[in-house]
Structure prediction request, 264 residues.
Amino acid sequence: MENNYALITGSSQGIGKSYAIELAKRGHHLLLVALPDGKLEETAIQIRSSYKINVEMLAIDLAENDAPQKVYDWCKQNDYVVDILINNAGVAGTAIFDQSPLEYSDLRILVNVRALVLLCRLFIPDLKKLKKAYILNTGSLSAYYSIPYKSVYSASKAFVLTFTKAIRDELYGTSVSVSIVNPNGVYTNEGTFGRINAHGFKGRLTAISSEDLAKMAIEAMFRGKAVIIPKFVNRFLLILQKFIPAPLEQRILRKEFNKEVAVS
Prediction:
């Protein structure tokens, strides 16, 4: 661990930044990968000044076609040994599907699905060579639902859930443990605050702070837990789902998530 790094995508703010701080507290060196918007350097400086660890950063847009390969090449060229891969970068949002720009859906597919899959494919052969290694994918409770107005997003997270569980079993018996965390709402920025608050008490009841999410997810990742769902109320919702007829569930979802359209 002394010379190993945790690579975290989408780590300049929000959940990714909280992951980085949580691992920094544990003395783990960090590779921060995020958009080139200035926040990445601020985060790197903040963590370096607070913890006695190495923090390196790569500013890149994971929606670019060759971005996953560039991330991997950057690690190899600098001899960074990655023993934790956290695929956190993602694009959320709410929109009426047939009224949204083509770029809206394309971006969510490129970042939420394509970049995550390719980074796993690139790093797994190296992770398998280590004594112990981890992959943590950031999913969503929406993976379990077909959500109107979040159609591409919820479908992308359903893909991530299925993909994560599949490669976890493929890697059974190796040194690599694969996990996914599926939170409900997470307080990260103005956009998420608005969407959570649009649901009123229900939104606030099921939401979690990025700091609490990161602590829970990292601890569960190190324990080798496959699927991590923060907060009892969210786990209860999945139990309740089994008893609700599908047409009724969709009517409830349509009514509930139409509230987000007004604040998007």
About this structure: The radius of gyration is 18 Å.
